[in-house]
Records
---
Amino acid sequence: MHVEIKIDDSYQEPKIIILTATMSEEVNHIIQKLSEHTPCIISGSKDGKVTILEQDDLLSIYASHGKVFALTSQGEYILKQRLYEVEEKLNQNQFVRISNSEIIHLKKVRHFDLNFTGTICVELIDGTKTYVSRRYVSKIKKILGV
C-alpha cells in the first residue's frame, strides 16, 4: 500500500481519496477504520477515582477473578470494559495478546525468555513477569522474528 499526504491551505477539513484497482479486504478495513467515530478512551478506577489512561502508560491489561485490570507504572486500575473491548481500542502495532486473559504493550517489555519449554516468559520494564500461553507462542515468535 502506498500512502501520500498533500498539505494544501485551500482545504478546510481533511479529504481522503482511496485509489484502487479492486475492492479488497484491506480497503474495506481502511474504510471501516476511517468511519469509526467512537473515541478510544480507556478509563480505569483506583481508590474511588476514575482516571483516563494513556495507551503509552499501559504495561499490560489482564483479566482476573471476573475483573479487568490495567497495569501502569502508577499502579493497577480496574476497568469497566471486557478484555476484548479494551483490545479493540488499543493500537494493534504496539499491543499483543499473549493469553486468553492478558494483553501486553510490546514497547514496555524488558525481554522475552525463550528458555522455558513450551512457553515464553515475559519481563516488563517494571519487573513484572508473565507468561505467553502455548496457544500464542507461535504468534509471539513470528512478531519477534524467531
---
Amino acid sequence: MKQLDLTEEVKVGIADCKIARSPQRIVTLGLGSCVGITLFDPIAKIGGMAHIMLPDSTQFTTVTNPFKFADLAIPILISQLKDTGAAVSRLKAKIAGGAQMFSFGDPKKTMLNIGERNVCKVREVLKKEGIPIVGEDVGGNIGRTMILETETGKVFIRSTGKSIKEI
C-alpha cells in the first residue's frame, strides 16, 4: 500500500517569496518569462524561493512590491534565510523559467525578451551576492512549475508535455 505524502507544501505566488524548513516543500506555478529562484542551506535544511517577474526595479518610479524584481527580491530572500538560521556561506541557488512565451518576429529585439533579461539579472545578482548557481532550467518557450524539497535540497521542474526532471 502506498504511503500518503503528508509533507506540507508552501505555495509561492507570482511576485512572492517564502521560506520553509525540512520536511516542507516550496512550490511555485506559472513560470513563463518569470524566474523562480531557490536558495538552500543543506546543513540547516532551510530553503527559500522567490518568483520574480522583472529584472530591474530602477526602471520604475514606484515600487509597491519588491518581490516583483530580481534586484530587490534576491537580497531580501537572502536576508530572510539568514534571519531564519541559514548560513549565507552555505547557500546554493537553482533557477528556472525565463522562457520567451511570445514571438515578436525579430529575434534580435532582445529588449522584448523579458525572460532572457530576467535570467541575466538573476545570474548577475546571485554572482554579486557570492551564491553559486548549481542547477538551472531556463529559456525555451514553455511554462514551468518549480518544487524545492527542504529535506534534500532537490529541485524538480514540471513542464507541460514533459516528464518531471531534477535540476
---
Amino acid sequence: MGEGVAFTAHGRASVAAEELESADTVVAVEVVVERVQDHLADGRTEMLDGAHWRWLDRQAAESEPAIVAELQHLGRRG
C-alpha cells in the first residue's frame, strides 16, 4: 500500500465489467468490504514504503490514462 499502511479488506468481489472500452485485457472488479484487518495495529510490523513500478511497454503506458478514467467513471456510477 504505502508507508504506514498495511491491511487486508475482507468482503465480496464481483466483476463489474468484463471488458473495458479502453483495454480488452482489463476487468473491472467491485469489492464490497465487510471488515478491514489492520496489519500494523499490534505494533509488530512497520510498512516502510509502497510498491514502485513503471511501464516498460510504451503502448501500455500510453493506454493507462484512458483505463484509469474509465474505471473512475464506473466507480462513480456504482
